[in-house]
Amino acid sequence: MLQLTENARLAMQTAIAGTTEPIAGLRIMVASGGCAGLRYGMALEPAVEPDDARLEFDGLTVVVDPESRALLDGVTVDFVSDLEGAGFVFDNPNASRTCGCGKSFC
Fold first, then answer.
1. pLDDT by residue (tens digit) across 19-51?
2. Structurally, how many domains does the chain consist of?
3. What are phi and psi of 45, to 5 degrees?
4. Which domain holds residue 33?
């Protein structure tokens, strides 16, 4: 299924540590939108839904809803920081097309 690089995991854990609310995990999802038709999303989740896939990465819980599972199969999430800024990058070998910003695909 989904893979995280060490940089992505550390950035996600830092985001979770910075909140005062209880967090059950980080949701990674795919939703309609973006230039290419589908876009990636991430959110801190206070609870895990019964039908969510629950993935563990060295103490980090990532949850994925049933609709996003197939679209995230084989995806690697990285966190990069360069002169243009910092952010998460999704490498999706199943995408037939991506937009220039790298945040949407089809």
1. 999 999 999 999 887 665 788 999 999 999 999
2. 1
3. -115, 130
4. 3-105
